[in-house]
Design a protein that fits this description.
alpha+beta, Uridine Diphospho-n-acetylenolpyruvylglucosamine Reductase, domain 2, Uridine Diphospho-n-acetylenolpyruvylglucosamine Reductase, domain 3, Uridine Diphospho-n-acetylenolpyruvylglucosamine Reductase, domain 1, 5-stranded antiparallel sheet, 20 strands, about 25% helix, binds uridine-diphosphate-2(N-acetylglucosaminyl) butyric acid
């Protein structure tokens, strides 16, 4: 375990926002994580940071930033049909996806190119191009901070939803995930029905796992800004889920509105479309801007403060609300604040 004081969080969040943490606790092993309750001494404020690709630090963090840096990708079982693979929380997500594809293990390829670490994948049930982390998660292992005891939850016990899980709800603040066990298939079953993915994969020469990975990465690169060049945290908002009647009412005057039917008469509307139609795509407020190629992404044009990003977020929400009557919720975790 490595403990440092007064650490800059700027290089540790992809928004590239300046904030300092009074304490940083780096855990290299599950043993280190089990010692956290004594390090935190009961009530110390804390936040578990993965790759920093989905956070907005609102101000300096008075407390402990915990980093589970546990590595390792290990095949636990392989019956020739499916394999269970245990991945350390600190493994870079896309390194795991590349590893899986390289080892002929399928299921995660549509999630290529998502920034962040494996340990965060169950927390917000990362998803892209028709697949979510829950589709490949077998179980999640970690430590409860209140007791220092290890836990293991099966995928079905994690209350996975759209960018949601038990780790954002009942267990929020009380767990450090140390490893995620994925169940991958030896049989490649392409899932290319999302948007123009099939066409993009076929244009690469045919449907293969390598081409799915390539097409997903290329699609992402064409829309989503590289955080190394332009600070951002991916989708800033969730796509709102509304009753079909609400979507129908908007579609009556806007038949061009994209919509995805879900179960129970619910409809998901792309927030990127709502924001673009509200006139915000490419617009700035101070040093924060709505990305000009994907309106769901807010960017730091350089030197933006968290307050500027929040101001932009609120301005966008207010306009979408007044034009379409729909409330957008941030997908990014706001950390700190009053
Ligand atoms: N759209 C617009 N204008 C925009 C952006 C999008 O009209 O500026 C429309 C598109 O034309 C399309 C629809 O909205 O009809 C959906 O767009 P896209 O396929 O780009 O996906 P998204 O709904 O905007 C979601 C995820 C992304 C994920 C993509 C691909 C959320 C919050 N975001 O975005 O995830 O990569 O689908 O599956 O669900 C992330 O979570 O950080 C993230 C990047």
């Amino acid at each position: 375990m490595e403990i440092s004081e007064n650490v800059s969080l700027k290089p540790l969040n992809t928004f590239n926002i300046e904030a300092r943490a009074s304490l940083m606790v780096d855990c290299q092993s599950e043993d280190d994580v089990r010692q956290l309750p004594s390090v935190l001494g009961g009530g110390m404020r804390h936040f578990v940071l993965g790759g920093g690709s989905n956070v907005l630090f609102l101000n300096d963090f008075e407390g402990a930033i915990i980093r589970p840096l546990i590595g390792g990708i290990e095949v636990l079982e392989d019956d020739g049909d499916h394999a269970k693979v245990s991945v350390g929380a600190g493994v870079v997500w896309d390194d795991f996806v590349a590893w899986s594809v390289g080892h002929g293990l399928y299921g995660a390829e549509n999630l290529s190119g998502i920034p962040g670490n494996a340990g965060a994948s169950p927390v917000q049930n990362i998803g892209a191009y028709g697949v979510e982390a829950k589709d490949v998660i077998d179980s999640v292992r970690g430590v409860r901070l209140s007791s220092g005891e290890p836990f293991e939850l099966r995928g079905g016990e994690c209350a996975f939803g759209y960018r949601d899980s038990i780790f954002k709800r009942e267990l929020r603040g009380d767990v450090v995930i140390t490893r995620v066990v994925f169940r991958l298939s030896r049989v490649f079953r392409p899932r290319v029905e999302y948007g123009a993915l099939r066409a993009a994969v076929e244009a690469l020469g045919g449907i293969s796992v390598a081409n799915v990975r390539k097409a997903v990465v290329a699609t992402r690169d064409s829309k989503l800004p590289d955080p190394k060049l332009l600070g951002n945290a991916g989708s800033f908002f969730k796509n709102p889920v509304v009753d079909a009647g609400v979507a129908d009412a908007i579609a009556a005057s806007r038949p061009d509105m994209p919509r995805y039917a879900l179960a129970d008469g619910l409809v998901k509307i792309p927030a990127g479309w709502l924001i673009e139609q509200s006139g915000w795509k490419g617009r700035s407020l101070g040093n924060a801007a709505v990305h000009d190629r994907q309106a769901l992404v807010l960017v730091n044009k350089g030197g933006a403060t968290a307050a500027e990003v929040v101001r932009l977020c609120e301005a966008v929400r207010a306009d979408v609300k007044s034009i379409f009557g729909i409330e957008l919720s941030p997908e990014v975790n706001f950390v700190g604040g009053a």
